[in-house]
From TrEMBL:
UniProt keyword Calcium, yes or no: no
Record's protein name: Uncharacterized protein (TIGR00369 family)
Lineage of the organism: Bacteria, Pseudomonadati, Pseudomonadota, Alphaproteobacteria, Sphingomonadales
Annotated keywords: Hydrolase
Protein source organism: Novosphingobium fluoreni
GO molecular function: acyl-CoA hydrolase activity
Signal peptide: none
The keyword Acetylation belongs to this UniProt entry's keyword annotation: no
Length: 149
């Protein structure tokens, strides 16, 4: 028997997969536990800047998404919105598989804080971020992609 939390997590994974922006990237979200999310992402040359490494927007997307879904795993009724995100880039990425790991830090009512880190194929941290997420008025149940598979 699947728990209510697990159904919510699967529905969040479905929501991630349904977002039009995610059709542009080879990535998969897994909500692994309460307050934890993981995104595996393939970095291809089409996301490189002129110097031949992944553009910073890619770091932001992965780190924000991992932290966001970690936080939203705790909120079953409303879609969260990113209100602030602090980003640190520590190593250029020239391709391969990246893993973004997000975890909830604090807050459960209106504002939640979550952190994430980005790991490359060598196991090195290539980026880190901290986000603040606020409950919106958007009901998760009203979003077409939010459904348990």
């Amino acid at each position: 028997m699947t728990s209510g939390a697990a159904l919510h997590w699967r529905a969040l994974e479905s929501l991630y997969a349904s977002a039009p922006i995610n059709r542009m990237f080879q990535s998969t979200l897994s909500v692994t536990a309460e307050g934890r999310a993981r995104i595996v992402f393939q970095v291809e040359p089409d996301v490189f800047h002129a110097a031949g490494a992944a553009h910073g927007t890619l770091y932001f997307k992965m780190l924000d998404d991992a932290a966001f879904y970690a936080a939203n795993s705790l909120v079953t009724d409303r879609f969260l919105l990113t209100t602030a995100f602090n980003l640190h880039l520590s190593k250029p990425v020239r391709g391969g598989t990246l893993v973004a790991e997000g975890h909830w830090v604090s807050g459960r009512r209106r504002v939640l804080v979550a952190e994430s880190r980005l790991i490359d194929e060598e196991g090195d941290e290539v980026g880190r971020g901290t986000g603040t997420f606020m409950r919106s008025r958007i009901a998760l149940s009203g979003l077409p992609g939010y459904s348990a598979v």
